[in-house]
Structure formats: C-alpha cells, structure tokens
Amino acid sequence: MFQIDAFTAHAFGGNPAAVCLLPDPQADTSPDARPDARNMRDDAWMQRVAAEMNLAETAFLTPRPDGDLDLRWFTPMAEVDLCGHATLASAHALWETGRLAPHETARFHTRSGLLTARRDGEWIELDFPASPVAAVPAPPGLLESLGVTATFVGQTPFDYFVEVATEAEVRACAPDYVRLGTIGARGVIVTSRSASSDGDFVSRFFGPAVGINEDPVTGSAHCALAVHWQRKLGKTTFIAHQLSARGGVLRVTIGGDRVKLGGQAVTVLTGELRA
Q1: Which of 38, 93, 204, 254 is found 20 to 30 A from 224 (Cα to Cα)?
Q2: Sign of CA dihedral 151, 157, 160, 161
Q3: Residue among 196, 132, 198, 122 nearest 161 (CA)
C-alpha cells in the first residue's frame, strides 16, 4: 500500500490517494498469503479498504496476463467511473517501485476504457477521454446550496458544472454540503477564469454525494473543464489551479476527444496491508 500526494511537487499538497498493488490473481505465491486471500479481494473487500483509508480515492491495481493492469477506484462510500489523481498516483507507484521501467507507458483498463500514463521528466502525463459539457437549467437547489450566481450551468457525464464571474467567487464559495448532496450527481465543479497571469482558469470540486465534501484536486473534472475553456478561450493548452486548501496545479491539453493531464506526485507513506 502507498499513500501518494498527486498533482503536487511537495509532500502534504495536492490530492492524497491510496494505491493498493494486488498480486496476480493467478499466481498469489507470497509466503504470508492467507488461503482465503483471493476470495477476500472482491468488491466488498475493496470498499472496506477504501473506507479504512478514508481518502478521496483508493486505487486498486491488478496485473493482467498481457502486462497491462486493471484499475478500479473507490471513495470511502462508492466505486467511481473515473478518477484522475488516483490514476496519476498509481502510475507514480509503478515507476517508483520498478514495476515499470522509466520509459514504459502505464496502461490501465478501467470503467472508462483504456487509460495511459507516461513520464515526461518530473511530470506524469495522463491520457483521458474528454467529457462533454452540455448547457442545462440549474436543478432546484443547486445554486442556492453553493451560494453563487452562475454565468453558465452545464452537466457532464458525471457532474454539474457551474461557471461564475470571478476567481474571488470561486474562492468564497461555501456550500451547504447536506443540501448539495441531494442534487443527483457525482459532484459539482465550480470554475472561473484565473485572476493571475500564471494560470488560465481555476476551479473547485464538491462531491458530498460520494462522501467527499471538497476534493483537493480532481483530474477527471479537468476533462470537462478543458472542453469548456477551449470553447470560451479558443486555446488548447492550459495551466489550471484547483483552489482547495491543499491546492493543486495541472497542465491540461485538449485534442479532439482526448485530454492530456500533466501533474507531479510524491510518495508520503508505504506499508503492507495485512487484513
């Protein structure tokens, strides 16, 4: 097991993810493996581990016969279809432990299809599907629970999407999490153009419906943010800042129906899961 801070170059920044490297289910020959270990690694077991770790996401990696890996993500409450920061953390763990050579591409089979990661110097670049953003009427209670006035409301395959006029409004957003958790989506992205010259746009992400009041850095949200800001700014490459208390920085590039998410990662804890 690893705990890795993703989308940051410094420990205790960015978004922490747990990464659980599972043995090959066809060849669990570790000397201390329990006889019933394979049967324990089912969905319910993964969910219990994620609840125990109590981080925004815990990633589970299982080797495949072709050399790729199966990757699944769990919050403390539920399995999710796409997670950027735990994918970046998973790739970092593979390279750091020598399971992948520095020049090798990490290939993950997930609920969102094949995802890849490659090293780019000190950065890791993820290749994710772009998430379309369709304009929709604000559902009852959404803006009231956020306490904001929207310039645009949209919906992605996972989340509601709210643009406000200024970065100051993004920073000041103080949601009613109980009410926000009833909106009927994985989460809510709140965004605006950046007020500073060192970035293009800023965002925050709230997901009380899946047990995460505020996610520190949300890679999957930037698959929709890239689509939206390309349309508004006419650019394809961005520097993005997520304005959580821990903060995070991403390099974002959109091309066609794919988004490249660049970030750094730092391992802060290693251990062995004994249960």
Answers
A1: 93
A2: negative
A3: 132
Pairing assessment for the beta strands 15-21 and 57-63 based on DSSP bridges: parallel
- Report the amino acid identity of residue 122: E
For residue 160, the cross-strand partners are 155, 188
- Residue 232 CB neighbours (<10 A): 12
Asked whether the beta carbons of 3 and 273 are under 8 A apart, the reply is: no
Tracing tokens 């050399």 back to the chain, one arrives at 67
pLDDT computed for residue 111 by the predictor: 95
Taking a C-beta distance cutoff of 8 angstroms, is the pair 254, 236 a contact?
A: yes
pLDDT of residue 5: 97
- Tell me the CA distances in angstroms from 107 to 28, 160, 211, 245, one per residue in order: 22, 29, 28, 31
Superfamily of domain 134-256: Diaminopimelate Epimerase; Chain A, domain 1 (3.10.310.10)
pLDDT of 28: 54
Sign, CA dihedral 125-130-136-140, equals negative
pLDDT for 41 equals 84
The CATH number of domain 2-27+35-122+264-270 is 3.40.50.620: no
Mean pLDDT split into 10-residue runs, the chain, 275 residues? 96 96 72 50 95 96 96 94 96 96 96 96 95 97 97 97 98 98 95 96 96 94 98 97 95 96 97 92
> Residue 123: how many CB atoms within 10 A of its CB?
14
